Amino acid sequence: MQKKIMALALILLATGCATQEQTASVECGAAGIGIGFLACKLAGGSDATCAAVGGAAGLGAGVLCYNLSAHLDKERQQLAGHENDLDARIKYTKNVNAETAAYNDQLKKQIDATTQHTDALTQQIRQNTVDAQALSKERARQDKMHKDANDQLAAQRKALNYQHDLQAQYPFKDQTLTTELQRQQKLYAQTQSQIDALAAQRQRI
User: Fold this and answer.
1) Separation of alpha carbons 45 and 130, rounded Å
2) For residue 199, what are the CA distances in angstroms to 38, 109, 122, 145, 192?
3) What's this model's pTM, rounded to 2 decimal places?
4) How far apart are the two ends of the chain, measured CA to CA in Å?
């Protein structure tokens, strides 16, 4: 019976993440940790083992839920041929900022969930109740999440450089565009700060 419940929970996890990816949800990765842990516990797993399983579900799902790089590439393609159109440039920059803000919201939720997960794991490390293999897998998962976040940061940096090139080639002195460009820079800094927070969790284990 427990195995059937576990299978159902994992199906719900997979379905939830697939649906949320299609709708660019910011909830997928954080929710995955809780469902993965629950499914493991229902199957009779220990807290130590299930903490690692929960991390696998949440962190793995988080990488798949929102690919900022792909969204930014799409926005750049849509601007092609309209670079010297002020309205098109403003729309492009607003869309880039909206996509980046959505990504940062997801990243924040992932960090919050990862922090809670790491809190439990560090306690198990102190109590010597987590085995080396599970700990190694958890480190690998967090390394993967950190790499993905850095890849998305690189996409933002590419978008910023593109904006600088556009302003040099087709300069506009417009307050709305200036405000959005400033916001883009702030969002980039926010992503960098959150990546630093993510790295801090990895250092704890």
Assistant:
1) 12
2) 26, 15, 15, 10, 11
3) 0.74
4) 35
What residue ranges of the chain have pLDDT lower than 70? 1-65
pLDDT tens digits, residue range 115-152?
A: 999 999 999 999 999 888 888 999 999 999 999 999 99
What's the pLDDT tens digit per position in 109-123? 999 999 999 999 999
Contact 5, 42 (CB under 8 A): yes
**Widest CA span in the chain:** 67
With beta carbons less than 8 A apart as the criterion, state whether 79 and 163 touch.
no
- Report the pLDDT value the prediction gives residue 85, as an integer from 0 to 100: 98
Burial class (CB in 10 A: 0-12, 13-18, 19+), 101: middle
What average pLDDT does the structure give for the chain? Answer: 80
Three-class DSSP labels, the chain: CHHHHHHHHHHHHHHHHHHHHHCCCCCHHHHHHHHHHHHHHHCCCCHHHHHHHHHHHHHHHHHHHCCHHHHHHHHHHHHCCCCCCHHHHHHHHHHHHHHHHHHHHHHHHHHHHHHHHHHHHHHHHHCCCCCHHHHHHHHHHHHHHHHHHHHHHHHHHHHHHHHHHHHHHCCCCCHHHHHHHHHHHHHHHHHHHHHHHHHHHHHCC
